[in-house]
Amino acid sequence: MIPSPFAYARPDTLSEAVHLIQQEKAVVLSGGHSLMTDLKQRRVQPDLVVDINGLALTDVIIEPETISIEALVRQNVLLSEDIANAIPMLADVASSAADPAIRARGTLVGALCAAERQGDWAAAALVLDAQLHLTNAENVKKVAD
Ligand SMILES: Cc1cc2nc3c(=O)[nH]c(=O)nc-3n(C[C@H](O)[C@H](O)[C@H](O)COP(=O)(O)OP(=O)(O)OC[C@H]3O[C@@H](n4cnc5c(N)ncnc54)[C@H](O)[C@@H]3O)c2cc1C
Fold first, then answer.
1. What is the pLDDT of residues 77-95, one digit of tens each?
2. Which residue of 54, 98, 112, 135 is 20 to 30 Å from 104, comparing CA positions?
3. Structural domains in the chain?
């Protein structure tokens, strides 16, 4: 199927992205593996698609007790030896979820936002006591569980 018409924006900064996303009927595009299907099947009919792939949100920060994973970290990055040593379950999930093509583009954050019932990442986040940092124009909200 063909998506319904929508405008497209690719912001360079997080503040610009947050501003755009506040618009009614705006959706975020990260890896696109869930969203593109939703668009094509018209389960989602946005007025605006905000492509966040121009943002510098690709870091994984490994600390003694935690790992911070930014919004554009692709799932295949989680296969790295450093991450496997720090939190083996993350690398285990990354090696068994989907396939290499999906993992090369799909993000962990996108998978959590898509919240597909059969998905592996939400279960892993729950088991690992993940905390999500949600950003809007006013603040950053930290959400657990
Ligand atoms: C063929 C195939 C096989 C798959 N197999 C598996 C599997 O075995 N196990 C598994 O767990 N998953 C599987 N998936 C799901 C896959 O992991 C997700 O489609 C993908 O990783 C979602 O991430 P994305 O970056 O592509 O998100 P997108 O498709 O870009 O976005 C998904 C949703 O989240 C929203 N979103 C994305 N990023 C953000 C953000 N930063 N802030 C706010 N909202 C955001 C989007 O608006 C959209 O609604 C499979 C998918 C496909 C197509």
1. 999 999 999 999 999 999 9
2. 135
3. 7-54 (3.30.43.10), 60-144 (3.30.465.10)
**Distance, CA of 19 to CA of 22 (rounded, Å):** 5
What spacing in Å lies between the alpha carbon of 111 and ligand 1's midpoint?
4
Ligand 1: residues with CB < 6 A are 27-35, 52, 71, 97-98, 102, 106-107, 109-111, 113-114, 119-121
Distance CA 13, CA 19 (A): 10
Structure-token pair, residue 20: 């755009």
Which runs of consecutive H residues, i.e. helices, occur in the chain? 14-21, 35-40, 81-86, 88-96, 100-105, 108-114, 121-127
Query: Which residue has the least CA distance to atom 6 on ligand 1?
Result: 98
For residue 145, pLDDT over 70 is answered with no
